[in-house]
Specification:
CATH architecture: 3-Layer(aba) Sandwich
CATH topology: Aminopeptidase
Shape: globular
Radius of gyration: 16 Å
CATH superfamily: Gcn5-related N-acetyltransferase (GNAT)
Strand content: 15-25%
C-alpha cells in the first residue's frame, strides 16, 4: 500500500468513501460534479501545514482508503501537540482485509514523527464495530466527548 497526500483530483473518490456508510449517507452530498464546498474545504486543508489529508492506494494505484490527520498545538502538556484522526474510510469492497489496521499503524507513526504526544479520535456511539476496532488497536475511552451542532 502507498500512503500519500491527497490532491484535488482525489476529492471525488474521498467524498464517495465518506458518503458510503449509514451515517455518511445522511450528512454528505456525493454527486457528480461535486458541490463546490468540498473543493473549497480541500483548498483550506491543503494550505494548512497542520492538516494532512491522506489517500491510500493499492498496487494498481487505485484509491482504497482515506484519513485526515490534524495537528493541534496547545499550551497544556508543556506546549504539546495533539494529533487527531478523522474521516477514516476504506472502500467498501476492500473492508475486512486488514487495511484499516495498516492505516492506523501508519497514522500512529506519522503522529510520532510530528512529535505529537497523543493521537485521539472521536466516533459516533452508534458505530459499535468501529469502537471495538479502535479498542483493539489500543485506544481507550478516557473522556466523554460533547458537541453542539449549529443549524
Amino acid at each position: 500500500m502507498n500512503f500519500r497526500e491527497a490532491t484535488k483530483d482525489d476529492i471525488s473518490k474521498i467524498v464517495e468513501m465518506i458518503a458510503d456508510d449509514e451515517l455518511g449517507k445522511k450528512r454528505e452530498n456525493f454527486k457528480n460534479p461535486l458541490p463546490k464546498e468540498y473543493l473549497n474545504a480541500f483548498d483550506k486543508i491543503n494550505s494548512d501545514q497542520n492538516q494532512e489529508l491522506i489517500v491510500v492506494e493499492n498496487e494498481n494505484f487505485e484509491i482504497i482508503g482515506t484519513l485526515q490527520l490534524s495537528f493541534i498545538q496547545y499550551l497544556t502538556y508543556i506546549g504539546g501537540i495533539r494529533a487527531q484522526i478523522e474521516a477514516v474510510r476504506i472502500r467498501k469492497d476492500k473492508r475486512g482485509l486488514g487495511i484499516g489496521k495498516t492505516m492506523f499503524k501508519w497514522a500512529i507513526n506519522r503522529a510520532k514523527e510530528r512529535n505529537a504526544h497523543l493521537l485521539q479520535l472521536t466516533t459516533d456511539k452508534k458505530r459499535l464495530k468501529a469502537i471495538k476496532f479502535y479498542e483493539d488497536l489500543g485506544f481507550k475511552a478516557t473522556h466523554e466527548g460533547m458537541k453542539i451542532h449549529f443549524e
